[in-house]
Design brief:
The protein is of the alpha+beta class. It has 6 helices and 8 strands. Among the domains are: 74 residues, no CATH class; 87 residues, 2-Layer Sandwich (Alpha-Beta Plaits), CATH 3.30.70. The strands form 2 sheets. The chain has a 4-stranded antiparallel sheet, with helices on one face. It has a 4-stranded mixed sheet with strand order 5-4-7-8, with no helix packed on it. The protein is elongated, with a radius of gyration of 21 Å.
Length: 247
């Protein structure tokens, strides 16, 4: 990266309302929401890479005040099959603890499922347990994503319909990171000095050493990321028709 490009990047980064993550200071899960950060694989982008990010940054979203219950004890289930019933969700998720409320979101006009639901538990530890144990579970032939409720717990939250959210498909080119489905990856220390370097940049091998270190770090992170998400293809299958579980 040239000096001019570095200065331009710093200027754009300074206009953001948050500090860019670094190799030494970063989190896999978002602690707040910003479309620019969520649209970046490691949270370090300073220019939106798709139009939906621009749309999300211009959007003003206010959480629904009619939603009741404790958001810290509530989980969200996404990617549900259209024919999944609320009773199916209650039966499966009650194995993690006592359920206070279960709501399968439906279209107000057609009454059809919008393929996501919210479940509130009696205890917060049970909600955490459900996320850990049931994320990636196959329900009625479809692997689902189980995550925390975001609209009331994550500051700055912008839902998917406004260009924000988490997850997404590779085919769309609008992936969002920082959630349980696609956590952030560790930023690569592009401008860091290799271990053992005396500084100054006079070493002929310093550039190749940096590239080698960065490549190894990226490959390691890629392996860890793929391994952590491989469980979503397996998981536990829960079929509404026969009410049986099998691994």
């Amino acid at each position: 990266m040239s000096d001019e490009e570095e200065e331009l990047r710093k200027m754009r980064a300074s206009s953001l309302p948050y500090e860019l993550p670094t190799y030494y200071k970063w989190e896999q899960r978002a602690t707040f929401y910003h479309p620019m950060m969520a649209g970046s694989i490691d949270g370090t982008d300073v220019v939106p890479h798709d139009r939906a990010v621009w749309r999300a940054m211009r959007s003003k979203y206010k959480p629904n005040k009619r939603v009741v219950g404790d958001p810290n004890k509530t989980i969200m289930i996404r990617h549900l099959p259209p024919d999944t019933k609320e009773s199916t969700l209650r039966e499966l998720f009650s194995k993690c603890g006592e359920i206070t409320n279960c709501r399968l979101v439906r279209d107000l006009v057609t009454g059809k499922s919008r393929r996501y639901a919210f479940i509130e538990y009696q205890h917060r530890r049970d909600a955490k347990s459900a996320i850990h144990e049931l994320n990636g579970t196959v329900i009625d032939g479809q692997a689902v994503v189980v995550d925390e409720e975001c609209q009331r717990t994550l500051k700055g939250w912008i839902p998917r319909r406004f260009g924000g959210g988490f997850g997404g498909k590779k085919e769309s080119g609008q992936l969002r990171f920082g959630g349980v489905e696609r956590p952030f990856r560790r930023p690569i220390p592009v401008n860091s000095k290799p271990i053992g370097s005396s500084g100054g940049g006079n070493d002929r091998n310093s550039g190749s050493t940096k590239r080698s270190m960065n490549n190894r770090d990226y490959n390691n992170r890629q392996h860890q990321y793929d391994h952590s998400n491989s469980r979503s293809g397996g998981g536990v299958e829960y079929n509404n028709r026969d009410k049986r579980q099998r691994r």
